[in-house]
Design a protein that fits this description.
The protein is of the alpha+beta class. It contains two helices and five strands, in the order αβββαββ. Bound molecules: guanosine-5'-monophosphate and zinc ion.
């Protein structure tokens, strides 16, 4: 999607601090970290949010969760939170599916 911020990060048009990349997904550090570890994992194909996950594209999401577990193991991170905001009221500001991975501090529940 030409006007999508995260599609521009995938193409390299906008630089990012890359954590991991393969043919299916990209992980990069959040520009405004909310925890000592805060990276995002996004599919390379444009999917708007979890609300657009369906039987045709859900394998990408399964892969992303494998990647999250792999990155966490490699970073030695044992306790972490995975968050995906869907829609404006839930706090989604970039309409390209992304999973926040946050770690390195105590977290409260429920989230605000
Ligand atoms: P959302 O608010 O949609 O759940 O999450 C979007 C995230 O993208 C935010 O945490 C925000 O800090 C991050 N973000 C926005 N623009 C950029 C950018 O240009 N580069 C990086 N690395 N992160 C960004
Ligand atoms: Zn996109």
């Amino acid at each position: 999607m030409s006007d999508c911020l995260f599609c521009k990060i995938i193409s390299g048009e906008i630089p990012s601090s890359k954590v991991y990349e393969d043919d299916i997904c990209l992980a990069f550090n959040d520009i405004d970290p909310q925890a000592p570890v805060h990276f995002l994992v996004i599919p390379k194909t444009h999917i708007g949010s979890v609300a657009e996950v369906n039987e045709c594209n859900s394998a990408v999401v399964a892969h992303i969760f494998e990647v999250i577990a792999k990155i966490a193991r490699e970073k030695g991170v044992e306790s972490y939170r995975v968050v995906s905001n869907i829609g404006e009221q839930a706090g989604q500001s970039v309409p390209h599916l992304h999973f926040h991975v946050l770690s390195g501090r105590d977290m409260t529940w429920p989230p605000g």
